[in-house]
Design a protein that fits this description.
The relative contact order is 0.15. The model has no long low-confidence stretch (mean pLDDT 93). The chain has 2 domains: 74 residues, RNA 2'-phosphotransferase, Tpt1/KptA family, N-terminal domain (Arc Repressor Mutant, subunit A), CATH 1.10.10.970; 81 residues, ADP-ribosylation fold (Alpha-Beta Barrel). It is built from 6 helices and 9 strands. The strands form 3 sheets. The chain has a 3-stranded antiparallel β-sheet with strand order 1-3-2. It has a 3-stranded antiparallel β-sheet with strand order 4-6-9. β7 and β8 form a beta hairpin. The protein starts with a helix and ends with a strand. It is of the alpha+beta class. It comes from Nonomuraea jabiensis. It holds the Pfam family PTS_2-RNA. Its EC number is 2.7.1.-. This is Probable RNA 2'-phosphotransferase. Keywords: NAD, Transferase.
């Protein structure tokens, strides 16, 4: 499969497994899972046929491990805007985590902290490099340092998705270190 097709399939999956499953007639279970064969049939019925081999390639080749396949079912690892419970337990985070953004959002972040916006959680990275890549999707990246250990000690909960993305409900501005 060429790179363009890989990206198109991945974006199609993101749209329908994270944001709008009903658009192609999918119903996610409470954990966000849908049977693979149901997904493939729905995609084909709505004019975007995906082969099982293409689906596996997207899941296996995605460097961000955005999707998981288990027991004949598939789901997005995080980033949902539709109600799902990923069943991730609260865990103790490392002392620091990182968040990639761009300069135009800094004023709001300094005022309100990091909010999940239309998602369920704020997404945090375990390392500066990943946060830089995330921020670069929208322009010149700015990496914020999150005092995750201090947040956790203050009672904030953290979860970590299957692909290593750290999730928090909100990061108040007092736990953020901004670049000078």
């Amino acid at each position: 499969m060429d790179e363009r097709r890989l990206i198109r399939v991945s974006k199609y999956l993101a749209r329908h497994l994270r944001h709008d499953p009903g658009r192609i007639g999918l119903t996610l279970d409470p954990g966000g899972w849908v049977p693979v064969d149901t997904l493939l049939r729905a995609a084909a019925a709505h004019g975007f046929p995906i082969t099982a081999a293409e689906l596996w390639k997207v899941v296996e080749a995605n460097d961000k491990r955005r999707y998981a396949i288990e027991d004949g079912r598939i789901r997005a690892s995080q980033g949902h805007t539709v109600p799902v419970d990923l069943g991730l337990p609260a865990v103790e985070p490392p002392e620091v985590l990182y968040h990639g953004t761009v300069g135009r959002f800094l004023a709001a972040i300094k005022e309100e902290g990091l909010r999940p916006m239309n998602r369920h959680h704020v997404h945090l990275s375990p390392d500066r490099e990943t946060a830089t890549r995330v921020g670069a999707r929208r322009g010149v990246p700015v990496v914020l340092v999150v005092a995750a250990g201090a947040m956790h000690a203050s009672g904030h909960e953290f979860r970590v998705s299957a692909n290593g993305v750290w999730l928090a409900g909100h990061v108040p501005p007092g736990y953020l270190r901004f670049p000078s």
